[in-house]
Amino acid sequence: MLARILENWLDNVGERGGYEIPFAQALVARGHRILFRSTHGQLEQGKDIITIDKAGHYHGYQLKAGDLTLKAWRDIRGEVEELIGLPLQHPDIPAGVAFTGHLVTSGLLKDPARKTIQDWKETWHQQGHSPLELTDKDALLRMFLDTHGEVLLSTPTDLERFLRLFLADKKDVLAKDDFAAFVESSLPFDTTDLKRSEIKRALASAAILASYILQGYQSAKNHHAVAEGWLMVFAYLLALLEDFPLYLKWCRPTLDICISAWETASEDLIREALASPRWVAGDFVPDYAVQGWRTTVVLSQMCSFALYRRLKGAPLAEEGEILVRVLKDLRHASFWGEGAGPLFYSMVLFLWLHGQEESACQWSGQMAKLIADVSGRRQTGPGMLDPYIDVRELLGVVHLGEPPSRDTFRGRSFFLPVLVEFVARRGRKRMLSSIWYDVCEVDRVEFTVDRKQDFYRWRAKTGSLDTRRWPHPQLWHDLVATAGADVPKDMLLTRDFLPLLMPFLTLYPHRFTACMARLVEQSV
């Protein structure tokens, strides 16, 4: 069944970028180290991917989509000549080193093109150029299936979930519950004695399976879904590595490919968003229901990615444009519930970093007052929706009058402590004093996982819910001291991948706490 699914997937990738990531992951699973991978379809000296294998030999790959006919060969022959005729150029590769060129296509090698290419490559090799190997759809299928082995999609539930995701409307939001469950089921979380080679193969295999689903969103230019998907895959791979931290060094290539895919999707979204004066999709009237949600999501994605790039030491050239859009469109964003908390926080932090402290504090104070007014113990409504409410459920609650699937959220808040501490760190005592009576009507609540591994899971298996009331009286210097306390970096995400913490929290709003907010601010 998996072989038939993969064959259908290869037949419909449409462009070489549709299978580049799973192909790179399969190379990693075979012991290759990725030295270069092109982005946005740009060839570098005729090469999409450059690797070095376990034996120390270098390889250059050029990827194509569709059947390789005689006409197609004539169209790409010049690029293939660059592939094997031009030397490898990379800081980590010695000048003039020998390498093998690979022409890879997702389709079949058709006659008479096969004989023409065979004769051509033998002639070029005799002239002293690098050898050329051909890989077509049949070889790709064998390569992917060898990477997976026989253990994946082994239950009817796994197969049903995969098919549901594979066939989903790719212009819709990513079904994160289903996608997370699928990625989790493809990783050996219940095995405690995995070898390094088994871990590497498992991570690469899970990433390849995920890419079969995400490629459809990529083809539909649903950049937000692609970015969310790859960040979630990265999170689940880290979850497994939390139990095997010593293997991180050898698994970095697989993680780096996931990060690169997330970066590409995020950059595409930002480029498209900045080029559009209004973020409206389809007809205005039916789109109105989700316009506020979309504004929140797009602004947050731009801000969190800009923060990520700052922490990586490569600030975005478009930061000024992003600031203009935040100042202009933040008033149109929807604060639908506590699930929007980290998204708004990324915007507030972005404003603060760009000298807009007054605006950042005003927005924080307004959101704190809103939560206190809606979720106070004396209120009669259900309270502010908690961060576990899915966007589909959210739209049903807000626009269709459907009851939320959970009981009342009144009298408690996950996000309110984040806002209170943000304002306290800026010394805004008067602002907090003016709303403190209302704030004290809402208990601060925080969920803590029992195992580090569960922090990355969409649904943690075990943990504790800590609910506390605010101190009476609350001493100002105690609040400021708490808001400025150091936070230990005791997970792989916070220790080795700290720049990704804010993007992760916007994807996982139920993992956003005052401590996580402190750690983000301390890092920037």
Write structural notes for this entry.
- By secondary structure, the chain is α/β, with parallel strands linked by helices.
- It folds into three domains: 1-149, Trna Endonuclease, Chain: A, domain 1 (3-Layer(aba) Sandwich); 151-275; 279-523, no CATH class.
- Helix content is 55%, strand content 8%.
- The protein has helices spanning 2-11, 17-29, 70-85, 113-126, 137-148, 156-166, 176-185, 196-219, 223-241, 248-275, 284-311, 319-329, 341-353, 357-375, 391-399, 416-425, 429-439, 476-483, 492-496, 501-507, 514-523; strands at 33-37, 49-52, 58-64, 99-105, 132-135, 412-413, 443-449, 463-468.
- Helix 10 (248-275) packs across helix 11 (284-311) and helix 11 runs antiparallel to helix 20.
- 40% of the residues are buried.
- The model has no long low-confidence stretch (mean pLDDT 88).
Task: Please give the radius of gyration in angstroms.
Answer: 25 Å
Query: Low-confidence stretches at least 5 residues in length (pLDDT < 50)?
Result: none
* Percent range for β-strand residues: 5-15%
- Strand tally is 8
Strand order of the largest sheet: 1-2-3-4-5
The general outline is elongated
For the biggest sheet, the summary is: 5 strands, mixed
- The averaged pLDDT comes out at 88
Question: By helix and strand content, what is the structural category?
Answer: alpha/beta
Specify the helix fraction band.
40-55%
Q: State the helix count.
A: 21
Distance between the termini: 48 Å
Element order: H for helix, E for strand? HHEEEHEHEHHHHHHHHHHHEHHEEHHHH
- Integer count of domains: 3
